[in-house]
Amino acid sequence: MKISRRDLARGLAATGAAAAASSLTYAQPPVGEKKSHAAWTQVFPGVWRARIGEPERITPVTVRAVPPLESAFAHLPAVAMPPISAIEAQQTERGCLLQLPLQPEEEIYGLGLQLLSFAQRGKKKTVRVNADPRGDTGDTHAPVPFFVTTNGIGIFVDTARYATFYFGDVRHKPSQPEASTARASLDPNYTQSDTATEQAAITIEVPRAKGVDVYLFAGPTTLDAVRRYNIFSGGGVVPPEWGLGFWYRADAHSTTKSALALAQEFRDRNIPCDVLGLEPGWQTHAYSCTFVWEPSRFSDPKAFVDAATQLDYKVNLWEHAFTHPASPVFAPLEPHAGDYGVWGGLVPDLVGAPARTVFGDYHGNALIDLGISGFKLDECDNSDYTGGWSFPEHSRFPSGVDGEQMHNLFGLGYQRAIWDQFLKRRQPTYNLVRSSGALAAPYPFVLYSDLYQHRDFIRALVNSGFSGLLWCPEVRDASSEEDLIRRLQSVIFSPLAMVNGWYIQSPPWKQLDRKKNNAGELLPDWEALEARCREIIGWRMSLVPYLKAAFARYAEDGTPPFRALALEDAGDNSLRDVDDEYWMGDRIIVAPLFAGEAERKIVLPEGKWHDFWTGEIVSSREFTVPHTREHIPVYIASGSVMPWAAVGPHTGAPERNKLIVRVYGDGAKSFEWHAGINHLMLKWSDGSGLIEQSGSAYSKSDYSVTEWKHFE
Ligand code: GAL
Asked: What residue stretches are annotated with the Glycoside hydrolase family 31 N-terminal domain (predicted)?
């Protein structure tokens, strides 16, 4: 028998429970749930904070590694008043609710490394760390509770909770009856109303917290708001020059012999390479980790690292933080670990200093002092869709955080434990990490994923610039030659240029197919494909001086070296949804091609542009380019002076200081790079070029120009 709601109500009335039911339906908000307006207090130039209730003890700001880079705020325009008058706040039984105005046509970007969407207006997103962000829910390797709008406003909610952001899609209930519907409709109106054009609100729910600090970053431009956030984070990182070279990660089964043979092969075959990465097999146990060299593969680790160093490689080691009971660091770490295990290992409480010190010191003494230049910090994101291997949200840690907070802080704490060791040794480093979060701009770490959609990888690169993150769209195997070339072309124009060959014996250009590669069945014409890849890797080497300048700017005024077109020109509606093109540095726009596409559409900002490769002037702002294997579409602003270094086997090779300088149009945009006392300037005037350089502490400033190549 079916029981209707009415029957149920009658039944309740009969038992005297109707009053309870109605009081449930019409409950008044409990005391303390009243809405209030939290005022802004200025904390830095153009940065304000509103404190709502009683914030939690552990948040991204309270556990931050680096203080704000105060001196850099002077690079940004002064802003006298906060661009939003107040924030509406409410404490509820579920946590904290915040509300901010959203103007008609105001678009929103950010929330960390979003792989699946770009413009966020009208969407609901929960900032939760996840190793497999397969749905567009806000899940990501690097959730950051920071967003910017096209009205030049940045908002950072200082929480490690899984906060939910409703970007304009929360609607008030209707309060007045109407005589009839406006028009007959059989279809449900799923889209409700056009939230993009209405006055709306941004609603943010921070679960479980009794309070929260919200930071407001003023523009005036959207890019200025991001710059302020990056400066507040401590300023952008500058990687060592070798970090900007080419990286190759060898097969997980590598031994001393095979890894060195590969390193030698690259040198013999003129494939530039700076960093050689080892994958899980270097350890005696990898899931969980011992952090101890496996003697059957690496019997003399020091001799191995020395031999790689002799060949001018840096060695990078894969690992994750879950610590096996047989690891020498297990016993000292055990008191500083969470109450659950992962893969039979400890989860170090990396939010707390004791665990970071014990864990970090071991890495410093046993591995960095051996000559290791950096690490790949794997598996530090959560595992919701892949078997639940990670620790649960109800975990407890000695520092006082629970599993939810730890998930959103784990990658950051892990990076910090390792980074501290390099800082202590005054040793520059550049690393990989699979999870990051808020205030990460100064961290010498680049994100990567186990997912492998080229299109999503480019969107991630475009999005990374909104949140102080760096991203590597790594190359592994490929579905076709075209796929390999396209992916390699993209990764060359990214913060870290890497082929991750962890599951293939030979480089992918020798055999694209994973199975055949591991069976030793090479492509009949692999040398031709290798030659194409060699050329593309060479572009990376040539780009290094330009990339150095882009990163120097990141450190100086917080300008992200890789960023969306919409970030640079937020007022230009034609650029608002462009998530497959990006700025690299201050004069180049990259528009990757994807395998299988016959052509692609290009949109460029206002101004005069040249095709980077041919120098030809681009005649319109919107056009289509046909599929070409030769080059990745790249455009350079007219007037640019652009260094193009000689390739060489690795970034430290002296022959690389010879530059070809490409000059586009009138050459009015000089090239400049500063690093401490070192300075390089390339100028073009009256049809001739001029090189100026100073600084002696750093031999790389001894550049010479072999050719000035002018494209009218
Ligand atoms: C994955 C990682 C890969 C590779 C592999 C080794 O988690 O994303 O890049 O390192 O582990 O087991």
From this structure: 98-165
How buried is residue 48: exposed, middle or buried, by Cβ count under 10 Å (0-12/13-18/19+)?
buried
Residue 381 alpha carbon to ligand 1 centre in Å: 12
Domain edges within the chain: 5-172+196-233, 243-544, 562-711
Residue 396 β-bridge partners: 402
Ligand 1, atom 2: nearest CA belongs to which residue?
450
Q: Which of 45, 46, 162 lies closest to 96 in space, CA to CA?
A: 162
Three-state SS across 576-628? CCCCCCEEECCCEEECCCCCCCCEEEEECCCCCEEECCCCCECCCCEEEEECC
Cα–Cα distances in angstroms (integers) from residue 71 to residues 48, 232, 235, 353, 556, in the given order: 17, 10, 10, 28, 9
Q: Kind of pairing, strands 609-611 and 634-637?
A: antiparallel
* pLDDT recorded at residue 174: 85
H or E element in which residue 256 lies: helix 256-268
Q: What is the mean pLDDT of residues 11-37?
A: 48
Distances (CA, A) of 267 to 313, 323, 529: 10, 36, 17
Query: Looking at the domain 243-544, which fold is it?
Result: TIM Barrel (3.20.20)
Closest by CA to 34, choosing from 55, 21, 57, 53, is 53
Please give, one letter per residue, the 3-state secondary structure of 316-329.
Answer: EEEECCCECCCCCC
Place of tokens 């990374």: 464
Q: How far is the CA of 318 from the centre of ligand 1 (A)?
A: 8
Q: pLDDT tens, 521-553?
A: 999 999 999 999 999 999 999 999 999 999 999
Q: Does domain 562-711 have CATH number 2.60.40.1180?
A: yes
CATH architecture, range 5-172+196-233: Sandwich (2.60)
Q: Are domains 5-172+196-233 and 562-711 of this chain identical in fold?
A: yes
pLDDT mean across residues, the chain:
93
Q: How far is CA 380 from CA 126, 129, 217, 673, 706, in A?
A: 19, 9, 29, 35, 46
* DSSP 8-state class, residue 223: H
- Which DSSP string corresponds to 634-673? EEEETTBEEEEE---SSTT-GGGGEEEEEEETT--B-EEE
Tell me what the mean pLDDT of segment 242-254 comes to.
Answer: 98
Distance 449 CA to ligand 1 centre (A): 8
Atom of ligand 1 nearest to the CA of 287: 12
Q: Which atom of ligand 1 approaches the CA of 286 most closely?
A: 12
Q: What is the DSSP string of 344-369?
A: TBB-B-TTSHHHHHHHHHHHIIIIIT
With a cut of 70, say whether residue 8 has pLDDT above it. Answer: no
Residue having the nearest C-alpha atom to atom 8 of ligand 1:
450
Statement: residue 397 has pLDDT above 90: yes
Distance CA 637, CA 479 (A): 34
With 50 as the cut, is the pLDDT of residue 597 above it?
Answer: yes
Percent of the chain past pLDDT 70, that is, above it, reads 92
Name the pLDDT band for 173 (thresholds 50, 70, 90).
Answer: confident
The model's pTM = 0.94
pLDDT tens per residue, range 143-153: 999 999 999 99
Residues 6+ away with beta carbon under 8 Å from 187: none
Backbone angles phi, psi at 571, to 5 degrees: -80, -10
- Which two structure tokens, joined as six digits, stand for 312? 């001018």
Distances (CA, A) of 498 to 219, 537, 659: 35, 10, 24
